[in-house]
Amino acid sequence: MLPAQHRMRTSTHFAATTRSGARQGRRNVVVYVRATSGDQPSRAGFVVSKRVGNAVCRNLVKRRLRELVGMTIQGSPAGFDVVVRALPASAEADFAELRRDWESAWRKAASKAEVPA
What we know:
Blueprint: H1 11-20, E1 22-25, E2 29-35, E3 43-48, H2 55-73, E4 80-86, H3 95-112
Parallel strand pairs: 3-4
Antiparallel strand pairs: 1-2, 2-4
Helix pairs in contact: 2-3
Protein name: Ribonuclease P protein component
GO molecular function, one term: tRNA binding
Pfam families: Ribonuclease_P
């Protein structure tokens, strides 16, 4: 589970990240990363729509993504907002596939995100 300080909660933060953040897509996920001020801890939010599957499947995908993001975000530098959007293909993906897609998209999007001056 992500600690409270690393959770993105408000729709304004979600909207700002998806609109102005660096976007990187893979087969199972789309990752949006926006650089914020460096004094704030990095935060993550998740979007898993009904197109992914039934409630059991969506919750499984969310749990897997939370675990992956939690392992990454706590060791990364502060000052990033991250939104992870699960695509319908993630319903059939196993943990290793999700991990590969997440890590690849995260590295690319984080390198593209501009650090504010």
